[in-house]
């Protein structure tokens, strides 16, 4: 009886304060709150500890912790995420907030003070240092190559596929994406290509086998590199492709005709994006092309590290930056933008395929990674898809070029002349002329 009384005040307050409810709630003790609309998701609060998690972290982090530990569950995860993202409760008075808070505390008391789930990662050290970045990447990929193979296509391509050009299957769409990138890079036989964040080698294998180029791929995950090398060997391309475990800031000086960075720069961070761009500029031959494919925040004021659930359970320190910030870093490094293309809807479709594939292999996923981590990934893949569908985030391919040295010198000279003319008092006409020259070089 004590447990029944514990949740009853919360049930009454929810019914009183939210007379229109696009959701139902079932409490651990038999109490329930019914939805006021048809086809609404049901939230199962399976323990008072779920409420304790929310009181300790009243945000997506608290809800996520309860879900990871199976203290909170839902009958329709997609519908539940839609409610969380879109439902706007009525304004509450201060008195109403106090009563709701007291009812929540009373219901949560039997759950005690919850501990963070064991999977939750809080990194130490300097943000986006090579050492901390390596730890973050290894946390993400240490879930295991076999786990990722449950929902990725046969090429093990772990980034946005392109369905908008006619592909109907995930496999086709990933091949379209790889071919689009190869085309934008202008690959030709004999070229030297650097693949930063090479994953399991899908682009390196595609480029070497179809364009007769040599590829150096780098990743921070040793297990990923091991499988990538095996896949390269199985394809008979060991003489064409080298896979290294290395940080982009620690690569030896090189001279590459083209650089691909696919799904990597969103992990670089705001405090290192200029270092990233200048590092790749230095590795690229004059006249060479860089293709940066990455998730981007559409709100320029968005603070990615505040999305605590994702950064603690899936992508530690992940920072999708606004497209404008990435382009600014490229321009500061001396690279010229050639082409920008967005694939937001394509990534939503990709994530839909990944989610379905994971659901089809849930028993295998639990056997490989455990029930808690499987719940993390079921939640993450769907939440990410909702983010793309709601246009909170997008993905862009930014194709930039390092100008040939004579072109670069000409541009710098024109800019210098323009500044000199402006400082000598020749007026706005001279300044406008120098800008026009700079843009057309």
Structure characterization notes:
The protein is an alpha/beta fold and 441 residues long. The protein has 3 domains: 110 residues, no CATH class; 272 residues, 3-Layer(aba) Sandwich (Rossmann fold); 28 residues, no CATH class. It contains 18 helices and 11 strands. The strands form 2 sheets. The protein has a 7-stranded mixed beta sheet. Strands 2-1-3-4 form a 4-stranded mixed beta sheet. β5, α9 and β6 form a beta-alpha-beta unit. The longest helix is centred in the C-terminal third of the chain and has 19 residues. The chain is elongated, with a radius of gyration of 26 Å. The C terminus is likely disordered.
Which segments are poorly predicted (pLDDT under 50) over 5 or more consecutive residues?
A: 420-441
CATH domain topology of the largest domain = Rossmann fold
Count of the domains:
3
**Rg computed from alpha carbons, rounded to a whole number of angstroms:** 26 Å
- What are the secondary-structure elements, in order, as H or E? HEEEHHEHHHHHEHEHEEHEHHEHHHEHH
Instruction: Round the mean pLDDT to the nearest integer and report it.
Output: 90
Shape: elongated
Number of helices: 18
Distance between the termini: 80 Å
């Amino acid at each position: 009886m004590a447990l029944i009384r514990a949740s009853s005040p919360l049930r009454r307050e929810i019914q009183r304060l939210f007379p229109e409810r696009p959701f139902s709630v079932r409490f651990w003790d038999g109490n329930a709150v019914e939805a006021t609309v048809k086809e609404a998701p049901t939230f199962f609060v399976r323990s008072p500890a779920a409420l304790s998690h929310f009181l300790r972290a009243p945000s997506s982090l608290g809800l996520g912790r309860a879900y990871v530990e199976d203290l909170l569950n839902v009958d329709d995860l997609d519908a539940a995420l839609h409610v969380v993202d879109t439902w706007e409760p009525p304004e509450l008075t201060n008195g109403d907030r106090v009563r709701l808070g007291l009812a929540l505390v009373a219901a949560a008391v039997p759950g005690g003070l919850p501990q963070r789930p064991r999977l939750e990662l809080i990194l130490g050290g300097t943000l986006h240092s090579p050492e901390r970045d390596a730890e973050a990447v290894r946390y993400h990929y240490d879930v295991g190559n076999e786990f990722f193979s449950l929902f990725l296509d046969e090429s093990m391509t772990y980034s946005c596929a392109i369905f908008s050009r006619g592909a109907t299957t995930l496999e086709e769409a990933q091949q379209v994406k790889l071919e689009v990138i190869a085309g934008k890079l202008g690959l030709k036989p004999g070229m030297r290509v650097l693949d930063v964040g090479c994953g399991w080698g899908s682009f390196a294998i595609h480029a070497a086998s179809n364009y007769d180029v040599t590829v150096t791929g780098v990743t921070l995950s040793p297990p990923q590199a091991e499988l990538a090398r095996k896949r390269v060997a199985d394809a008979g391309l060991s003489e064409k492709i080298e896979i290294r475990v290395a940080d982009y800031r620690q690569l030896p000086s090189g001279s590459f005709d083209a650089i691909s960075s696919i799904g990597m720069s969103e992990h670089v961070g705001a405090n290192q994006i200029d270092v990233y761009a200048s590092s790749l500029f230095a590795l690229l031959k004059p006249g060479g092309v860089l293709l940066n494919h990455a998730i981007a925040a559409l709100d320029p004021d968005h603070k990615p590290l505040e999305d605590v659930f994702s950064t603690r359970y899936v992508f530690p320190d992940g920072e999708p930056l606004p497209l404008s910030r990435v382009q600014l870093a490229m321009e500061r490094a001396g690279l010229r933008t050639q082409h920008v293309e967005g694939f937001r809807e394509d990534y939503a479709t990709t994530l839909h395929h990944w989610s379905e594939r994971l659901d089809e292999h849930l028993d295998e996923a639990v056997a490989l990674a455990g029930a808690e981590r499987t719940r993390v990934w079921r939640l993450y893949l769907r939440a990410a898809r909702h983010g793309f569908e709601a246009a909170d985030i997008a993905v862009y391919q930014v194709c930039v070029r390092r100008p040939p040295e004579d072109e670069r010198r000409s541009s710098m000279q024109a800019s210098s002349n323009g500044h000199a003319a402006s400082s000598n008092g020749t007026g706005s006409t001279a300044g406008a002329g120098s800008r026009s020259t700079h843009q057309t070089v």
